[in-house]
Amino acid sequence: MFSNLILRNSHRSRKENGLFFSSLVISIVAFYMILSISTQDVMLFLQKMESDAVDKLLLLIPAFYGMTLGILFFLIYFACKYQFERRRHEFGVYLMLGMRRSKLFGMLLAEDFLTSILAMLIGLPVAVVLSEIVSLVTAKLVGMGIIGHQFSLSWSAIEWTLAGFLAIKLTALLILSGRISRQEIGTLLSQPTNRPKKQMPSVIYGLAAICGSVMLAVAYYMAIQGIAWTKVSMMGLTLLLGIVGTMLLFYGMRALIALIVKKGKGNKQLHVFTFRQIQENVIHQSTSMAISSLLILAALCCFGAGVGIAGTNSLSSGHVIDYTFEDHTAEDSSQVLPNIKAALKENGLENQFSELFEMRVGRIRTTEDYDNAYSMDAVMDSLRSLPQSEDRDVLLNNLGYATYPYLICLSDYNRLLELSGKPALQLGEKEAAVYIDTEFTTVSRTAMLNQVLAGQPKVELDGSPIHLTGEVQSVNLVTDRSITLSFALILPDEAFLYYSQGMYDTYVNAVLSEQALDGNSLMTAYLDLNEKLDETGIEYESYLQNIGRQLFYTIASSYITLYLAIVFLVVANTIVGVQFLMSQQKTGRRYQTLIRLGATYETLCQSAGKQITWFMGLPVLVAAVSSLFGVRALFTGILSSRTRGTVSAMLLVSAAMILLLCVIEYIYMRVVKRSSDRYLLTLMQPQREE
User: What's the CA gap between 607 and 269, in Å, rounded?
Assistant: First the structure.
């Protein structure tokens, strides 16, 4: 009989508080996902190319794990506290009927153990599936497609997930059940009530809301303009302004609620009661609402920024060539390509490549006056005539150092353009094109320089006049971005050979053949061919390094931010949902009074639904608006100059993620409303007063 009672109580608790049970399942999923990163095949692959960065990332995992344990402990503590507060009367009846306190304590432990076991049985399989999906998605984001993915199951992640989850669950339960079992029967049978809090004049609340709004505006201005990222003290000031501003804003919102109450006179049923309840909840729980809003803001920013960066990662670097070979033993630069072809043929690897072509890069060798080898006064004058802006000033500063540029051979670069599907450059005898690697410019600066180049300005190269024409070029010259030129000139072949005086570096670029890719994923083809090339002694760089770097940043931005966002979102919504349900329970006598006065169940549910919409909607609304600025501020601080040109695309992806999370918030709100409706249904039955 006692075991049946435990089973019934455990089932009823899960049914009546689905929000808390769902939070437990999501917590287990988050634990496993972060702990299993090191055993996934994508991460194992990354360790071959980015071992130092991956090792540093993995060293952070225990810190995230420990931080999450602390956060989720308070989540579980307050959620369990709500469950126990809701069952106070039930516990009092058990003790009054003769149940020993030790047996009550054991019953609570057994009920919680069953709930925990069920949560783990649901959460762990879901976590394994989700971790595999995320692993595949991160590989797909950099254009790798199916990469020979193998299923991975981390037993150590399962063990640490179970250990951490059960530890915080047991600790919270021991504290709460101990307190409940020590209380007197009369205390348990009495219904808890809200303690009245002192009201302040409306002017105080209005000033608090205004001050909070101003502080938030200043905080976001400092973050978006980059002021907060200059030093630690400024970042601390920005965070302080944001946190205090949010607290003051929610503290002052009660003035707005009071205004709505005064003007909300109409024929709507329980309108005044509803907004009196809303006003009281805001007064009593403004701090909790502010904290929940900050946590939701953190979740929205993590999701928005992380997915935005990961989703647009491939925009910053195109894949054209697969391998770049070098031969430092060649006496003449013109012999590099024949030597590489001969070495590949000797080792039976010539059929692995469909293209082999030179990329010749040199410097001006017709003069030793490096400070005056090149001048472009006309370009600088045209830039100065443009409207003043940060991009213009940065361009003027960068181009001011371009007095000794690199030179690129036109025919080689045109072959690269052809492979990338772009039109070839057409240059006259006295013409040149500008090359700037994307690492050193942005989309807006490139557009500004293209505007100047449209006029074909005249410049001087070692005293000879030439005209710059066309648009700024930026296709990667070799693989793995081992060459990044801040400024270079693309010259016709004759001019290149003349100004370089035959002293230049030759890189041999290669494209994989269909035979090399036959039946293999891109990663597998690279790994197999790398093993063969390592045996030949040929010096090479492959696109594999570039893939590794992109995939590492994708994982760092998607796994970690996804993990933190899940934790913040679960904690925030559970806190605000549990706070409302506890407050509703403490004001249960008011609903009973309305029932005696003739209020129907549907009317009470509508009133409670409006309260929930306001109570949960305000933190979400403030967080959603703030996240638009927060994500932009994160981009300002964490993006490199090379990727800042894709901010607009990232913001679109981030906005979509923020909208998606707002939908999730709506689902949370519906769950809390269902819990509220079930509680109100219990009040419709006449109850005897003890």
Answer: 8
**Separation between Cα atoms, residue 376 and residue 374, nearest integer Å:** 7
**Model confidence pLDDT, tens digit, residues 637-675:** 555 554 555 566 666 766 777 777 778 888 888 888 888
Q: Which residue has the tokens 């505007």?
A: 451
Handedness of CA 24, 26, 31, 35 (dihedral sign): positive
Render pLDDT for 511-567 as a digit per residue (tens, 0 to 9): 888 777 776 666 667 777 888 888 888 888 887 666 665 666 666 666 677 777 777
**Which tens digit of pLDDT belongs to each residue from 386-418?**
888 888 888 888 888 888 899 999 999 999 999
Rg (CA), the chain: 33
Nearest-CA neighbor of 147 among 137, 155, 161, 157?
137
Residues of the chain short of pLDDT 50, as ranges, are 142-147, 266-267, 314-317, 642, 689-690
Please give the Cα distance from 282 to 288 (Å, whole number): 9
Give the tokens for residue 664.
């999730």
Long-range contact set of residues 168-171: C-beta below 8 Å, sequence gap at least 24? 168/69, 168/72, 168/73, 168/76, 169/24, 169/76, 169/112, 169/116, 170/112, 171/73
Q: Report the distance separating Cα 407 and Cα 385, nearest Å.
A: 28
Q: Which residue, 553, 59, 140, is CA-closest to 306?
A: 553
Domains of the chain, by residue range, sit at: 1-191, 203-267, 271-318+550-689, 353-512
Terminus-to-terminus CA distance in the chain, angstroms? 27
**How do residues 290-319 score in pLDDT, each as one tens digit?**
888 888 888 877 776 666 655 555 444 456
How far is it, in rounded angstroms, from Cα 483 to Cα 477? Answer: 7
In angstroms, what CA-CA distances link 620 with 239, 562, 616, 655? 19, 18, 7, 15
User: What residues does 460 pair with on adjacent strands?
Assistant: 375, 465
Tokens representing residue 3 in the block: 């075991």
pLDDT of residue 360: 93
Which structure tokens are listed for 374? 């090149």
